[in-house]
Amino acid sequence: MQRSPALRDVVLGHLQSFDVRAAGEADPAHRGAAVAVAIVDAGHGAEVGGLPRHAPWQDDAALLLTRRAAGLRHHAGQWALPGGRLDAGETAEQAALRELAEEVGLQLDAATVMGRLDDFVTRSGFVITPVVVWAGAARHLVPNPGEVASIHRIPVEEFLRADAPRLEAVSSSEHPVLRMPVGQSWIAAPTAAVLYQFREVCLLGRPTRVAHFEQPAFAWR
Predict the structure, then answer these.
(1) Is residue 143 part of a domain?
(2) Which of 100, 159, 168, 197 has its CA 20 to 30 A from that of 181?
């Protein structure tokens, strides 16, 4: 049997052929932000396994997610990708790498950046730029207690589940709320929208758009 390409080659090839859409002229009140979609070795601490695998490289690949600290003013306790606001003069790539270092103690250089996914404008007033990063083993992760309650390596196979995404119609919007199932729980947009686009674009090579999906009411604040 012919061996499948390494995940890094698969993701990089798909990103290079993907036409990224920026948010354009957003509301001036919106603030720029970046999140790191960090591909890491599953290794010790990987969670939410036990599903049929779709490709050999999925046995040892995961995405890095966090649970936000309980004391945060906004979105406390929620699932998140490492990320935050852009500092003055920063690019999205610089901000994503800085946030990885600040939130989980992962120091990476610019050579690890693979590309971007589409901007996502949130109800809470941010234009989020997702930056895909090849983080490798990432053995020594340390949560910043002021921002992160826990760090999780979620195997990429989990985002390829047949029951993902989950769409829920809401009366307040013409577009459904998007959620991604994880184990027996789920992650809501905007994080879920980024994860779904990562699945579609980076893993499956399908140029899928997600910026139109709605977010649940608790994410509006």
Answers:
(1) yes
(2) 100
Task: From 115, 108, 118, 153, select the one nearest 131 (Cα to Cα).
Answer: 115
Question: 3-state DSSP call for residue 116?
Answer: strand
pLDDT one-digit tens code per residue, 18-50: 999 998 655 666 799 999 999 999 865 444 433
Q: What's the farthest any 2 CA atoms get from each other in the chain?
A: 54
Identify the domain containing residue 97 by its residue range: 7-22+29-158
Residue 213 CA: distances (Å) to CA of 125, 161, 179, 189:
15, 19, 10, 8
CB-based contact 126:218 (threshold 8 Å): no
7-22 tens-digit pLDDT: 999 999 999 999 999 9
In a domain, 15, yes or no: yes
Would you say residue 79 lies in a domain? Answer: yes
pLDDT digits (tens, 9 = 90+) for 41-74: 986 544 443 333 344 444 589 999 998 775 555 5
Residue 163: how many other CB atoms lie within 10 Å: 8
State the CATH number of the domain containing residue 119.
3.90.79.10
Q: How many domains does the chain have?
A: 1
